[in-house]
Amino acid sequence: MADQAQANAAPKADSSEFVAADQQAGNRFPPKGRPLITGINRIGLWTLYMKEVRRFLKVQTQTIWAPAVTTLLFLVIFTVAMGRGTREILGVPFATFVAPGLIMMGMMQNAFANSSFSLLAGKIQGTIIDILMPPLTEAELMIGIVAAAITRAVMVGGAVALAMFLWPAVEVMAAHPWAIVWFGLMGSTMLALMGLITSMWAEKFDHNAAVTNFLVAPLSLLSGTFYVIDNLSPVFQTISRFNPFFYMISGFRFGFLGESDIGNTNHAVLGAALGVGALNLLLGFVCYRLLKSGWKLKS
Known about the structure:
Belongs to the ABC-2 integral membrane protein family. By secondary structure, the protein is mostly helical. The protein has helices at 2-9, 15-24, 42-57, 60-81, 94-125, 129-132, 138-166, 177-201, 205-221, 234-241, 244-257, 266-293; strands at residues 88-89, 92-93. Helix 5 (94-125) runs antiparallel to helix 7, helix 5 (94-125) packs antiparallel against helix 9 (205-221) and helix 8 packs parallel to helix 12. The radius of gyration is 26 Å and the shape is elongated.
């Protein structure tokens, strides 16, 4: 009791004394409000990216191989319906024509599926704080989630391309590798950003499914994956040219075949390549501003 009384009676050291002692010991603390992490939080960004990648790799049968099998079934059904390769489009058999579009469609749909799940699952399960609390800026948060979605898209595209390579009716070639890489990445990035915005907006999985069923799927199927738009009426040709998915798939097909609906030369496709790049910059800016504002994430 006496020791406790002496402790209570002893004067309490002022906080400035502790700071002065720390400074004398060589410790330097930044002023209040100044972040301890400057520049890019590389460790945090890498951790978020690996968390998202491991999440879909744990169920890779569903997230990687199942989409590849589904896409291959599209190829089999349409090839049989079109006469088992006797019909030619753009100077190549139908199966060879449709293969790049199916690869691109699988990549974009799975990029959307991955990023649209990230924040939505956290909001529903009440674990969104685990993503928002770490010392990551809004840009780093967006980059981590989008990069993981692109990784899944590339894996799905590789699995589908492997299946196409093994399919006897398809001749896989690379006439313009730059177009394959550029449009593949731009298409995956566009759908990843759309998925992240959807994940912020949605409050339940039904909202996510509605965007998938009424926006992503129709734009994918009506983008010239299975046909050339020259076969459409002038009105529907005009509508198709307002569909960004059309330029992604046509540009990706140009990379494989050297021909597409938007041109048969590098110069003709370059305008579409710059256009989809500008569209992704716009989507990225919108997504960043929404994350910055905490729209539907912070209450």
